[in-house]
UniProtKB/TrEMBL annotation:
One of its GO terms (biological process) is lipopolysaccharide transport. Pfam families: LptF_LptG. It is found in: Cell membrane. It comes from Trinickia fusca. This is LPS export ABC transporter permease LptG. Keywords: Cell membrane, Membrane, Transmembrane, Transmembrane helix. It comes from the Bacteria. The gene is lptG.
Length: 382
């Protein structure tokens, strides 16, 4: 890096760290207040609330980094403009294009840090945070259904070489990935119900097998109706055979990793987890729109740091001295908040209108990039 680039980088990184920790401290306070409603339930004490919020801090870093980059860069350039430092750089031959390239070069390490936090640190700490809460409360993952979690599981071929479709109802998913109150409804290739299994609990044994305990296995065999009555597809006749089993090994495409996505919101999952879950939904012919948008947002969001830096550069060309730093920083905060607002809003609009996931995820960033480039062109001319 050139000397002026090192100077820019040192100033921007120092301000960035300060802004990042200041905003994360503010969010920590708000999150802790929100957790106080749960304190006192079960074994959930104040210490657990502090630990849970602390474990959510990396995800807060991930959300704040683009805004922190924008505010820190605006602050640095506002200070330089107020002290005529940036004017000296321009007189020395620093063009707008060179300043933009230098600023993007400074932003690349921030993009890498954002990817690392979003893919490695954040998802892991969020799962730990949920497990701390669930274990302290002595509860399981809750869903919108009173009966628990419903998952579709499709096997291409069973022991008889036929395809099998199952609808699995998990009453409780515990933080250690064990399951309880399990109901499995198994259908043949013609979607005829052929088996119902009810298990008290289960744990994953690896290699695509679950070990279920306390199993009641009800096998259903379709019977032909009496000759005097016509066949009724809506009211079939079955013969049932019920077997009680202490243990049963079930082959399934479901894994604890697939079930564990219920512990973390899609926006806080890693791209690898999202990709695997989308594959599972696709294989089972289920809608993936929500998770497709989340995957593309995870892919493109770190580059929002570069967009925010482009937005910050026009502030270096404004020469008003009275209240310059405060006004510019306030403008940077408003720009950053509006970007977060539009980014979230477009996700919901894209999901409602079934827009392509890449367009839904990229559109807010492209709009703000165009705004930043337009601002640069305007200040360069004036």
């Amino acid at each position: 890096m050139r000397i002026y680039e090192k100077y820019f980088a040192r100033q921007v990184y120092f301000a960035f760290v300060f802004v990042l920790f200041a905003f994360s401290g503010l969010f920590f306070f708000f999150d802790l207040i929100n957790e106080l409603n749960t304190v006192g339930h079960g074994n959930y004490k104040f210490g657990y609330a502090v630990l849970r919020v602390a474990l959510q801090t990396p995800s807060r870093f991930y959300e704040i980094i683009p805004v922190a980059a924008l505010i820190s860069a605006i602050y640095v350039f506002a200070q330089m403009a107020a002290n005529s430092e940036y004017t000296i750089f321009r007189v020395s031959g620093l063009s707008t294009g060179q300043a933009l390239r230098s600023l993007l070069k400074i932003g690349i390490p921030l993009v890498i840090v954002t990817y690392f936090i979003g893919e490695v640190v954040g998802p892991y700490s969020d799962q730990l945070s949920e497990r701390v809460r669930l274990e302290a409360l002595g509860s399981s993952v809750s869903t919108n259904f009173a009966s628990g979690v419903w998952v579709k599981d499709t096997l291409q071929a069973d022991n008889n070489g036929q395809s099998v479709t199952r609808f699995v109802n998990v009453g409780k998913l515990m933080p250690d990935a064990t399951i309880s109150n399990v109901r499995i409804y198994e259908f043949d290739s013609k979607f005829g119900l052929r088996n119902v299994r009810i298990a008290e609990s289960g744990r994953y044994e690896g290699s695509g097998h679950w070990l279920l305990t306390g199993v009641t296995d009800t096998a259903l065999t379709s019977l032909a109706p009496p000759s005097a009555k016509p066949a009724d597809a809506l009211n079939p006749v079955y013969r049932s055979t019920q077997t009680m089993l202490a243990q049963y090994s079930l082959r399934s495409e479901l894994t604890p990793q697939i079930l564990s996505v219920l512990l973390v919101a899609p926006d806080r999952m890693s791209m690898f987890s999202l990709f695997r879950y989308i594959q599972h939904l696709t294989e089972n012919h289920q809608d993936t729109q929500r998770y497709d948008i989340a995957l593309w947002k995870k892919l493109l969001y770190p580059f929002a740091v570069l967009v925010m830096l482009v937005l910050s550069l026009p502030f270096a060309y404004l020469h008003t001295r009275a209240g310059v730093v405060g006004v510019k920083v306030f403008g940077g905060i408003m720009l950053g908040m509006s970007f977060q607002l539009f980014n979230t809003l477009f996700s919901h609009i894209g999901m409602l209108n079934t827009w392509p996931a890449p367009m839904t995820a990229a559109l807010p960033g492209l709009l703000y990039l165009a705004l930043g480039l337009f601002g640069l062109k305007w200040v360069d001319r004036h």
